[in-house]
Amino acid sequence: MTRPTPLTCPITDTAPLLPHSGHMVLLDSITEYSGSHLRATASIGGNHILLHGGGVPCMAGVEIMAQGVAALAGCAACNAGEPVRLGFLLGTRKLELFADSIPVGTALKIEVDLSTQDQSGMGVFDCALYWTDAPPQAKAALPSDGLLVRAALNVYSPKDGKAV
After folding, report:
1. Which pLDDT tens digit goes with each residue over 24-77?
2. CA 25, 26, 32: angle at the middle one, nearest 5?
3. CA 74 – CA 14 distance, rounded (Å)
4. How far, in whole angstroms, is CA 33 from its chain's centroid?
5. Is the model's pLDDT at 120 over the cut of 60?
6. Whole-model pTM above 0.85?
7. What's the confidence (pLDDT) of residue 43?
8. Residues whose CB is less than 8 angstroms from the CB of residue 156 and which lie 6 or more positions away in sequence, other chains included
9. Which residues pair with 61 in a beta bridge?
10. Taking the CB of residue 71, how many other CB atoms lie within 10 A of it?
11. Which CATH code of 2.60.40.10, 3.10.129.10, 3.40.50.2000, 3.40.50.300 fits the domain covering 15-156?
């Protein structure tokens, strides 16, 4: 049996690692990953699927971070030669929003760190969403430390779940 070639960063084609398609793929690239953490990038363009009133509501940052969790699982599946499986965002704990919205033209960094995961597929991931660049006129309205959203995401990926 041939072992799959391990993925190497940066990964710029994130769609095969996510159980999403088309405009719902929100991650631009994966810059770093291991078995327990992932770093990724995303951007807010003028045709972003979550755009509302000239920006993406910071609450939608939960979906962007959840895609980081899905990408971490997708990397693990690909490296093991397994199909990417569906996962479910069950909820959040310790959700903190540090801005109202993310302006068009903003570059983002996503950080995902595994807190705990059991054999049934239940997991908790500590996640953060940062802005790394933004249009000059928007920077003053964004947090100076870059942190937009932070939360612990509760997820479930059934082991016998349908492969994507």
Report:
1. 999 999 999 999 999 999 999 999 999 998 899 999 999 999 999 999 999 999
2. 105
3. 9
4. 12
5. yes
6. yes
7. 98
8. 87, 88, 90, 121, 122, 123
9. none
10. 26
11. 3.10.129.10
